[in-house]
Amino acid sequence: AKSDSSCSYRIFDSGIKDARAERRALEGALKAALENKELDLFYQPILDLATNQMWGCEALARWKHPTKGMISPLQFIPTAEESGLIGPMGDWILEEACTTAMTWPQPLKVAINLSPVQFRSRDVVASVRTALEISGLPAHRLVLEITESVKLTEEATAALKKLKALGVSIALDDFGTGYASMSYLSSFPFDKIKIDQSFVRNMLTSADSRAIIKATIGLAKDLNMSTTAEGVETEEQLNALRLAGASQAQGYLIAKPMSREAIASFIADVPKP
Ligand code: C2E
Ligand code: CA
Ligand code: CA
Ligand code: CA
């Protein structure tokens, strides 16, 4: 038993070392990726359900690794956050997305995801202001998406208020998946709620998901907020969301996230607001 436990201890220990080494390697590769411009943004169209026209796009980060291919943001954003790289990376994302949105027809907006770390360790207001200045994008065409993982401290709330004062809109992402959604909503006047795709995925089979979606849309209306339903993959879901009164829809049914070039031709091919 003794040799067993020392053996498992060794394995455990080397496992930790491997995980640390792996994280350091990933951090190094990510830093190089930022310098070598391997980071990229894809754009997913969002449909306005009132007009049936395009509302704009959400910018979604991608890492085009030279040998490993396309790496998902779910795999590298957490490492970027832990290492502090999300700071410069987030600034680049803001600037790149705003610059791209400037090439789109006037009414189209761009939604950009902000990490909680950008609120803690960065003057996020200065970053956004710089991106707007460099790109020339009018503030009303920019929506910033945050999740409940942004702790609404006095500082964070003050930053959000300053962003709204600039003319930027603020959306609450992944609504309904956190533990504090309701208190969160009452802490700050969000402009938009993004209904998480888990509810949309189940809405046709689960009465509970339907009830949550219906209640969320009603709540948003009473609070003067709009709603975007995420992860819309079927016509049936789209019709049900339309009936429920969602403002916008986003998902593979409308289009998958695509490159800057592909979104330009997508926009050229669809009816414009
Ligand atoms: P999110 O903000 O909730 O973004 C929506 C995710 O759902 C995207 O995944 C999108 O590709 C995916 N999606 C869209 N439509 C459908 C659909 O119909 N079905 C399914 N199954 N999925 C759909 P993606 O691009 O892998 O991004 C994952 C997450 O990574 C994002 O979730 C966001 O939290 C984070 N992320 C992405 N880009 C950035 C960024 O630039 N900065 C920060 N801080 N986080 C980002
Ligand atoms: Ca988002
Ligand atoms: Ca989301
Ligand atoms: Ca999410």
UniProtKB/TrEMBL annotation:
Keyword Transmembrane: yes
Keyword Transmembrane helix on entry: yes
Cellular localization per UniProt: Cell membrane
Domain EAL span(s) in chain numbering: 23-271
Keywords of the record: Cell membrane, Membrane, Transmembrane, Transmembrane helix
Main location: membrane
Protein name stated in the entry: EAL domain-containing protein
Protein species of origin: Microvirga terrae
Lineage of producing organism: Bacteria, Pseudomonadati, Pseudomonadota, Alphaproteobacteria, Hyphomicrobiales
